[in-house]
Every structure is written in structure tokens, then in C-alpha cells.
Amino acid sequence: MTLLQQRDNKAFTYLYENYSGALYGIINQIIPDKESANDVLQEVFLNIWKKIETYDTSKGRLFTWILNIARNAAIDKIRSKSWQNDLKNQSLPDDVNTLKNQSVKMDTDNMGFKKVLGKLKEEQRTLIELSYFQGYTHEEIAKGMSIPLGTVKTRIRSALLQLRTMIEQQ
Amino acid sequence: MNIKEYISSGIVESYVLGLASEEEKAEFEQLCTRYPELVAARNSFELSLEKEAFENASEPPGSVKQGFLDFINRQSVSSQQSNSTSIEKNMAQKSSPVRWLAAASVLLLVVSGYLAYKFYNESVNLRSELQNTKDAQAQLDSRLKTLEDQQRVIKDPKVSVVNLTGLPKAPASSASVYWDSTSSNVWLLVKNLPQLPSDKQFQLWALIDGKPKDLGLFDPQGEEKVILKMNNTQKADAFAITIEKRGNTAGPDLEQLQALGKTKL
After folding, report:
1. CA of B56: how far to CAs of A29, A69, A78, A85, A115, in Å?
2. Fewer CB within 10 A of the end CB, N or C, for chain B?
3. A interface mutation test: which of B17, B39, B54 has the most A CBs within 10 A?
């Protein structure tokens, strides 16, 4: 850890070799397009390099911290203008309701969480898809699906609990 | 706080996956400092998540790795460069008192400019306020002088009062003539006279042996009842007010007699 925070080249090389595959797997689940996923992965490592001092061991494992950087970077990417422009011709649905249908399609990706997601009830799957993989806030989801905010929160949490059980049973 | 319930509420997963709100995060981190079992639950989920992620890892293209390694190499080279350029930095630091002075003088200039502008505005305001006060003072002085003059006339034992009362033509009309028979001075206090068109004026007459003597033209007074200095007359059997053409030089238009008052003499 100290070596990382001193920006030791070898430590960062090790970090990359150790974590890039796992992160790439996650990023790919959010961004299926390989080219963009590559950009995001590179950005993630640059961010780790820049922000390593802010990592606080008492708040969680290093991988968790990095995973959240990766998820945020990937969501920023799919929310960015250039990304939206690239997808214009593919008529990407831009409201939460229509995204529901998209999430069902993406379940065929048989990798990582998405594989586990397939075992959830459709409603729970949708909630996880929107909140975790698309980065919508609980408030946005509540509004878009016309469900009370408290209900969204409870359902997401119970979906997460099931997800956890499934992951641990594998 | 029932920590077991809290742990099984899904907050642990929510926190680790970055789905918790800022408030929830703060609360979670706070509770972690007090409940080791919460930290254990978090750790256990983090490990399963990590295991899951590693099982589903996919190899990114080598170009990404090369890009990142190039970046960190450049960064470490430039940090070495920044060490070797410390001599230049020192030189820059030497000139810093001069920069300081320059910055301070610019600041001083800006501040003094602002103050000058502010004080100039203030002095303009004060000057105009002073002028207003002077004008008001002059007005009060002249009003006070008028009132003093009136008082002097009214209180003078040599001055007699002749009350002019309204005639059938203008029954509401009323005025008083203050007449000093020793000095022949005549003052008129209008109590009530009608408004006139702008081409008409009132005229005060003294009647001596049945003949009118012009004591002067005057305009209708407003709300303020001022005492007017009229022409002198040594004799008068009566005083009368008529309405005349503005600047009248002819005799009185007795048709237009407004008020009349006989002297005691």
C-alpha cells in the first residue's frame, strides 16, 4: 500500500497485472463495446494513480475502492455526450421505462453478475440493472417507474441480498 | 440500533457496491467504528465480490497496459525532472520578493482607486445635501421674518384694525386692514377671498369723502394667510376690495365690490 501511495512504478505494474482482468470484466458488463471499454479501463488506472492517497483502508478493501472507480468511470462514459452521439443511430431509448426492455435483452450476456442477475425475478433484475449497471439514482428510478422512493430502496436492497447469496453459493 | 437487523437490511451490499446515499455512507462508516461484526460482514461481502470478479475476469488488450505503463513512466521521469530543475525554482524564488512587491503595489493601487472613487462620491453627496439644508434654512428664515413682521404690525398700539366683511356679491369674503394712521402705513390680511382667473386681480381701495383711492393690486393668496404691505394712506373713511382686470389703472369697478369695512374715524 505504501509503495502504491509513493507512486512506485513496480507497485502500479503489479496492481495492473493483478486487477485489470477483473475490472475489465466488470467494465464490459456496463459497456459491451470493446473499444470504449479499453478507454475506460485505461482511465480507471490513471484515476487510481492520481487518487491513491484518498484510499482509506479502514473503509474497505482496495479492490472495492478500485471497483467503484471502475463502475463510476464506466457509467460516466455511457452517460457522456460522445457516447450518446455514437449510439444515436441505434435509437437508444433514453427514459428509464424503455430501458427496462433493454435490460432483459442484456441478460443473455452470460458473464459475471449478469449471469447471476438472470436468476433474479424480473423486477429485481431491472432494479439492479438500472441502479448498478446504468447508474441511475434511486430517486430517478422511483420517478421513472412510478414507485415510491422507499419501495425502490427496499427492493434494491432485497435484490442485493439475494445476489449476495447467489454469489456465495457458486 | 439492532446491529444484526442493520447488517441483514442490505445496507452492507449497498455500501460496498457504491449504491448507498451519502447519508447512508456516513452512517455506515460511523457504525463500522463501533461494531466489529459490521466490519466483518462488509469484509465477507467484499471478498465474495472480489472472488466473483476474479472468476469472471477477461484479459484486456495489451495496448491498454502499455498505455498505462507509458503514462506512469512519463510521470516518474517528469518528477525526476522537477528535482533537477529545483535550481531554476530557487532562482524563481529569489525574485519572489519583487513579485510580492509588485503584487502588493497593484493591490494598493486598486484599493486606493476604489477609495478615491468612494470618497469622491461621498463628497458630491455631502455637498448637495449641504445645499439642500442651506435652501431649507433660507426658506425658514424668510418665513420667520414675515411672521415677525406680521406680529410687529398686529401688536403695535398705534395700529388699528378695520375688518372688511363680505358684501351680498361675495358674502364669505373677509379681510382685515391694519392701518397706522400716524405713519399712514397700510397692511392687508386676507382671510377669505375667492379664487380668480389669471387675468383678474384684487384691488384694495381707501374711500375718502366718497372717493376711492388706489391702495394697490394683489393676487389671491393660497392657503397661507400672509400680511401684505399696501400703499400708504393718511385718511380713509372705509376700505374696500374689488375685482379688477390684471394691472388695472382705471377706477374701481363697484359692481365687483367684494368686501367693505368702515374706519372708526
Report:
1. 10, 18, 22, 30, 10
2. N
3. B17
| Length of chain A as a residue count | 170
Beta carbons of B46 and A13 less than 8 Å apart: no
Strands (E) located in B5-104: none
Chain A positions in Cβ-Cβ contact with residue B17 (cut-off 8 Å): 68, 71, 132, 160
Cα separation of A32 and B58, whole Å? 13
Q: Which of B160, B162, B159 is nearest to B238 (CA)?
A: B162
The chain-wide mean pLDDT, for chain A, equals 80
Chain B residues at the A interface, defined by Cβ less than 8 Å, are 8-11, 13-14, 16-19, 21, 29, 32, 42-43, 45-61, 63-65, 67-69, 71-73, 75-76, 79
Question: The pTM is what?
Answer: 0.52
- The interface predicted TM-score (ipTM) is 0.82
Quick check: helix, strand or coil at residue B192? strand
Q: Which of A63, A28, A133 is nearest to B50 (CA)?
A: A63
Nearest residue of chain B to residue A162 (CA atoms): B10
Q: Is the pLDDT reported for residue A130 higher than 80?
A: yes
Cα–Cα dist A112/A105, whole Å: 16
Cα gap A57→B62, rounded to integer Å? 30
Residue partners of B33: CB distance under 8 A and separation at least 6: none
Inform me whether the C-beta atom of residue A14 falls under 8 Å from chain B C-beta atoms. Answer: no
Confidence of residue B88 (pLDDT cuts 50, 70, 90): very low
Name the residue facing B60 among A41, A68, A113 (closest C-beta): A41
Residues 6+ apart with CB under 8 A from B94: none
Strands of the sheet with B227-230, listed across from one edge:
B211-218, B200-208, B238-245, B257-262, B159-166, B174-180, B185-192, B227-230
CB A29 within 8 A of CB A112: yes
pLDDT over 50 (residue A91): no
pLDDT band at B141 (very low <50, low <70, confident <90, very high): very high
Kindly report the nearest CA distance between residue A55 and chain B, in angstroms: 14
Instruction: Please state, as a whole number, how many other Cβ atoms lie within 10 Å of the Cβ of residue A126.
Output: 23
Q: Please say whether the dihedral angle defined by the alpha carbons of residues B189, B192, B198 and B203, taken in this order, is positive or negative.
A: negative
